[in-house]
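Box 3.1 A note on notation
Throughout this textbook, protein chains are presented in two layers. The first layer is the amino acid sequence; the second is a token string describing backbone geometry. Keep the layers aligned when reading.
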Amino acid sequence: MTPAARLAAAAELLHEIEVAATPAEQHVSAFFRARRYAGSKDRRWITEFVYRCLRRLGELDWAVTRSGAEPTARLEALMALILFEGVTPEAIAADYFGGTHGLAGLEPEEQAVLTAAASLDLADMPVEAAGNFPKWIADKLAEEYGAAAPAVMAAYQGRGPVTLRVNRLKATRDDILAILADEGIEAAPTALSPDGITLESRINLSRHILRESGRIELQDEAAQISARLADAAVGMQVIDFCAGSGGKSLAMAAGMNYDGQIHALDTDAKRMRDLAKRANRAGVELIAPLLLHEDERDDELLGQLAGSADRVFVDAPCSGAGTWRRQPDQKWKLTPERLEELCALQRHILGRAAPLVVPGGRLIYATCSILREENQAQVDDFLSSHPDFHLVPVSALWAEVGLDGRYEGDCLALTPADHGTDGFFTAVLEKADPAQ
């Protein structure tokens, strides 16, 4: 593809993503399925350019607005070339539209936009634009993180790392690192999770023998830490209340050494099928997938499980704010109304999960979010209405569950600015045992 064709494709994709509610990754996949002729280099350039624009949409929108032009997909793509790629207006004319002098080949409005973009004073950019967050979210982060808020927002401008979890039931981390090194794949151990490996370059291991044999799973380090904090041990009864495709269930199972049971609950039948496949690959037989129907049938199922679980893990549906490096379009589509709906759902799920915990057992509440409403505020609300539960400080559990380094804090609250992980929150809540 020519540079102009690549740019046109990127502009088309950006427009599709902007007007749709579905995640960007779905549009990118569908776009290239319909264009088999695009080579790997073209696909890589277009995909990386689109995601760079989405991660830095605040700067891009501000620049387009300051240029005085009516925003269009192509104009925004041209502006992004100048702001993020360092391409001059003259080079765009020559390389992208075949012009031989000045700005030949561009429309007058495009010429004006690009000329204005080249002379913009980026120091005038407001905090939310420079941080590439919607203003209402930037204001929340400023309130919660104070002076650290700009660093938190800046950390979202890069790509999330490719991180693996080594299945302790089948291999050690040193084993996997040695195999990767033999294959010329650069990798390093994670700083906090003793099971984690970060790849130094973006290599697709989805069909690699290590994954197909169940020795590794793709899982961010923060999620690995959260699963460790559950401290699911040999012989325990565990409920993974919002199991999804089972990443946390599999991580907890690795610490149970084939002894005990995990009931993995979810409302998505397809994810339940995926979990069964992943469990078989990992050599795990103690996970029992259970489908929730969101009707009266759930009352009977949850009634049978009431008071039975040593650990109930609630990885609650949330805004996904902690993963916005990987899904940058979603931060622009989140609304205050949707956030309120999610918080109400989280409270409902916690209320449903609490009765499942046996006296002396623990309820683990987790989100891949960095927003207080979904995290600490939910824990405070839960504890105020459930006096039979108390918070177990994460700092007291850290070394006990085998995590590396140190962590000071009652709840796990990570952002990409801390250790390069996804943003993640975890609180460990213990139910009182009247017999003790």
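The chain has a mean pLDDT of 92. Residues 262 and 287 are 5 Å apart (CA to CA).
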